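Take one protein record:
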Amino acid sequence: MTDTTQFEAAAFRRLLQHLNQDRHDVQNIDLMTLAGFCRNCLADWYREAAQAAGTPMSKDQAREAIYGMPFAQWKAKYQADASPEQLAAFQAAQQRHG
């Protein structure tokens, strides 16, 4: 049986590249509305996996690993304030999937 860990890791790295380099224009709120997760969720899952493996990791460290830079820097560079339409869509999605 083939060890899939290397394939999973490569796919994960590609996802991060896609979200943070190729499509940094896609806002986290839009990801949450459409997919039910965002970059911050990935950071939380990454931190949980590290801690489960015995590697302590802070929220900031996990976000930097996912965003490829400190979160505050990424947010200032790419994150726009949510529009009223984005907020309404997010609230509607939360109610549907609540």
In short: The chain has a mean pLDDT of 92.
